[in-house]
Amino acid sequence: MYSKRFEPIGDKCHEIIEYVMASPDIPSQDDLIFKIRLSIEEVIENIVQYAYENGSGFLEVSTKQEDGVLYINFTDAGTPFNPLDKPDPDISLSAEDRPIGGLGIFISKQMMDKIEYEYKDGCNVLTMSKRVIPA
Amino acid sequence: MNVTINQEGNKYNVILEGRVDTSNAAQFEQDLKPLMESSNAEIQIDCSGMTYTSSQGLRYFLMLQKHVMSHKGSLVLCNMQPQVKEVFDITGFSNIIKIV
After folding, report:
1. Is the whole-model pTM more than 0.90?
2. Which of A37, A95, A96, B70 is deepest in the core (most CB within 10 A)?
3. Given 3.30.565.10, 3.40.50.300, 3.40.630.30, 3.90.209.20, which CATH number is that of A2-131?
4. Does A14 touch chain B (CB under 8 A)?
């Protein structure tokens, strides 16, 4: 499995994104690359900013591809936080009423097929998946 | 990411190129400052060279839209690449910011 543990993560957002995108499990089609990069950037950015108070903890990322489905896993031992608890933004609001921000995980959810969260053995474990080879 | 602003009177022709993401969001905010301080401005942003935007970029597009609405101005984004347009579509931004 393609996997790496980053620690500390405070200033490594870009490095972690590039590591995931360099995985042999990432497909080569431009439109898929665009969606995957956007999805992981939103998630990694959140973890780097908010998981640990001073950014000193770890983030382990791994990828695999099974039966044409790409799985990307993120594990950190920071503050327990389920980003999927956040209600989706109301995208029907007018510009005046739209709040600034709060779109990150929503964009990831739209770009991937599925995102799952569990808190396990003291860690936040987020797994996203997307079919990258037609069934 | 590169922002070029050409101003003539209250018309701002802006060319936005490259990727807007976490790594350069602060720079993007800085580059948009002349627009965020404008009033009665007609702002047109050519997005043909914009290859990517994360939610960080969207944040500033929305701030700019709110600004022009409260300062009697207008904002139009043009020539957007399909993948970037999709991000504006799924977030509902296509309905609140004029894209041609």
Report:
1. yes
2. A37
3. 3.30.565.10
4. yes
